[in-house]
Amino acid sequence: MKKALVLGASGGMGYALVHELVARGIETVAFARTREKLEKLFGHMEQVTIISGDVYQVEDVKEAGRGVEVIFHTVSVPYHEWEKGHPTIMRNVVEAAAANCSKIVLIDNIYAYGRGNGQPITEEYPKRPHTKKGNIRLQIDHMAKDAHRQGIPALIVHFPDFYGPNATNTLLSYTLESMVAGKKAAFVGNQNVKREYIFTPDGAKATVELALREDAYGQNWNIPGYGVISGREIISIVKEITGYSRKVGTIGRGMITLAGLFSRMMWEVREMMYLTEEPVVLSGAKYEKHIGPLPKTSYEEGIRQTLSFMKGVRT
């Protein structure tokens, strides 16, 4: 791979992918809606071409994809826009890949798997989503697989919740940002339940490694985090690093439901709260068997780097 396009480059995984691609000497096109933000994030990087545009406009995506070998689709959409937004964007990605003879790497989450069974989920686990957003993600997965069958190489990478430098708009970032700022903080979900998070630079390393291998296409790949960790353990790590001494509250399903009566966005969060109560944990056995050891940064180090980035943004 000599040149790649990262759609949604200003987001958490997009940001990590741009840095990983550049670190491997790959010319990279960073695409997002806001040029100012792209300039702030990547303006100092010689191997990065910045293109601002609208991912809902297929011609913008096609133009950004000229001459690239792989299109990394990392675009996030506000929950209340998922139903129309995600299928439209995926159609544009497929059309752009077809026009430019590019491959597709789809960054996906765990929603399509639905409820877990208490064991690490492999790629063979049946996708039986029970939520609206899970069904939308399954629809996008099918679109990627259809594209592959039609001759456009595509692979799908499933991740747990993100955290890492520039990974904002996540449930965990809500807690971390408040603690870094010394403000009143709260953790979304039961603090005693152990859940899984992926450090975005680790996810980017694994994803690029897959994208470089021809035999990885046409498949789903699960990329787990550094084991499971409880909210209390995360809060303890953050307090140790920052000196934060205030009590961190809990935001449960009831509070989310109440807030949802006044906010469409919070109402959409409500149906995904099951993941904070019955976590879905991924198995990385397939990756380790066919590719090699998974990149795994400890939560202590990953949180330290994440907080350091947050502090830099604030100052």
TrEMBL record:
Occurrences of domain NAD-dependent epimerase/dehydratase (ranges): 4-223
Top-level taxon of the source organism: Bacteria
Matching InterPro entries: Epimerase_deHydtase, NAD(P)-bd_dom_sf, NAD(P)-dependent_oxidoreduct
PANTHER family found in the cross-reference section: NAD(P)-BINDING DOMAIN-CONTAINING PROTEIN-RELATED, PROTEIN YEEZ
Protein name per Swiss-Prot or TrEMBL: SDR family NAD(P)-dependent oxidoreductase
Organism the protein comes from: Aneurinibacillus thermoaerophilus
